[in-house]
Structure formats: C-alpha cells, structure tokens
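The data are quoted verbatim for completeness:
=====
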Amino acid sequence: MSLPISEIPAAEDAATTNEAVTANETAIAPSSPAAKRTSPWLDRALTALAVLALLILAYVAWGYWQRRTAPAAPSAAALPAAQSTLTFTPQSPTPTAVVDLPPYDLPALSAPGVPAAGVPRMVQLHTTLPDFSAFQVRSYEVKKGDTLYAIADQFKIKPQTIMWGNADVFFDNPDFLSVGAKLRILPVDGALYRWAKGDGLNGVAKYFKVAPEDIIGWPTNNLNADTIGSFNSPNIAVGTVLLIPGGVREFRANGTSVVTRKNPGVARIMGAGFCGTVTAGVNGTGTFVWPSTEHSISGYTYDPGINHYGIDVAGQLGNPVYAADSGVIVYAGWNDYGYGNMIIIDHGNGWQTLYGHLSVIGVNCGQSVMQGGTIGNIGSTGRSTGPHLHFEMSINGAHVSPLGYVH
C-alpha cells in the first residue's frame, strides 16, 4: 500500500523511487509473452457470440426487406368494387328417375257387384268369445277335495274374498265349504253386500274400510254420482247386491267358545252335544300328544286370517282320535256350526282341546279321559269335503296354534 503524498519521505532519492515504481509495475503487467494469450474456452465463446450477432442482424434485415416488397392492401374504397366482381350461380338438383307402375286391371265381374276372383274375407262361425267381463261375478261349484286356499289360488284372489263374497255359504267359517256348493267368484279382492233398508253409503263404506266413491265407481254396481243423491240416504234400491272393491271386514265368531267343567251348559248354542252338570274329574299334565295316527295337515292350517283357529289333521275314515291330554269331556255330540260330531275336553288347568268332523264319538259327557286314550274316529261329518280331524287348542279362552304345542 502506498502512503499519502504528504507522508512520502523527502530524503528518498530518485533511484530509490524509480525502483519502487518499477517493482509495482512488474507486479501488475505480464512478465512474459505467454501471459498475454487467452484460454481456448474463452475463444470459442467469443466466436459463438459473434456468429449469433450476425444471425440476428441477418434476420432483422430479411424482415425489413419483406415489409418493403409486400403488396399494399386494398383501400376501403376499393373493397366494394372487388366484392362486386364475385358472383354465385345456384345449381338445380338432379331429378330422380321415376319408374311408371305397371297397369292393374280389376277382375271382371260375373255379376253386378260380385267379383269373379279375389281374396275372400272368411267369417269364423266357431270363434269363442268369453262369457264374462273383467268386472262380472262368476260362479264355481265346489268339487271333492277342494279347499278354500286351492280355489283362491285358481282364481287369483284371496281366501277371505271368497268367504266375504259368499257369506250365506260360509257364515264366516271356512269349514262350511262343502261339495256341490255354488260359490260366487269376485273379479277382484273385496266383498259383496246386499243393500238393506236404512243403509247409508257412508256407513257401508266405513264398515268395509273403503271410500264411498270406490263403491259408486265400480261398473257393475250401476251407480251414478250425479243421481245417487245424499250419501246418508242414497238412491239405492233395497236388495241391490253391490261389489265392494278392496273391501274387508271383521269375521264373526265361528261357533266355538270356551266350555268349562263348571258351566258346560254355555255350549247349548253350539248344538245338541252340550253337557249338563259335570262333576270334577282328572286334570291334564300340560303337555300334549298328536291327536291321531297321521302326522300331516290336510286342508287348512291355523290361520286367523280366514277365521280358522285350528288345524286339519289328515287321516282316513275311521282312524282313531286320541285325547291330546288328560281331562273331562264337556261337549260330546252334534255341532250346528259345521263341525258335525264334536268333542271338547277341559283339562282343568286353563287348557281346552276340540275335535271335529268325527265319524264316531266314543265318550260321554262328564267322562274323565287319559292322555293318549281313544275318544272317537276320524270322519267327514258336518261341513267337510273329505275325512280329516279338525283340532283346536285354547288357553284361558285364547286360541293358539296347536303346531306349537303338540308332539
């Protein structure tokens, strides 16, 4: 580092000063000719930059030349004239060739209005037409072996509909089905009702759980909303049978009730088999055995939906019927509600069992019977379409399905 001018010693001679200057210059300047040459990579970089600069200058010059030699765009005044020289000539479509149809001569007439030949329109005299409409009630005669379920399946309606359409046949008891009975088959699920004096449309509709309009609107009822008048006192003749589409109602009691050994006389309404005074007897075990020799169902099972509170045990005419449990006979004889020869056993512990359609009754009123003992024989008495045993069970007056208790 050099000192400021004011601090350079005055006593230094010229030779010393020149040596110092020479030494500084020697440190700064290259010491030989080789030191003045640049490195190869620097030379290549400088060459590339020069070439790039020449290319840029050439591109700029070419663009300038293009602009100078390009033709001038037409002026706005010249545009309409140029456009007016363009014309469009529409071409007509090529016509489609038309082929003339060959001439057609009508056949000669052998007589006025009668063609001699042609395609005849045949009248089929044997064409079969249905004898009922989709809204009419049909008729069916019960055959041997028929059940309410089978008939319902055949006509695609519910078993309840058959019962509600034939209240004068079933009296709300499916066991009243008998061979030869003529049944009305409704076209839809519902019920039939015969109009009575004093009936109102609102009341009848409520009873069957439908709307009055449902009854009026059914075609075969032949009712007119404009002329029917007041729903409370409609213009419907007494005795008119109406179809109630979709109608349902509650079933009435089917003629069986609890008959205790203390008061067996309450069964008087069931028929001649009621018992008078019954003295004490044996009590049941609370367990139950199968009441006959065949262990299968024939006909109806336990189904409160059709007012059937028992099971129909299959069997041949004369097969033995057994007491399901020990107890006392409180009914033995004919039943007026379709069960024919019937027996009821009171088991003394709230349980009762009922046996219907018997061919033979082998016990008497007030008699004590033991579990598994023979009390009668299978039959087909009363309203029945074939031999079987109608078997019911109840506990404290409430029906239960025997299939849950017998073994």
Summary: The first helix runs from residue 14 to 28.
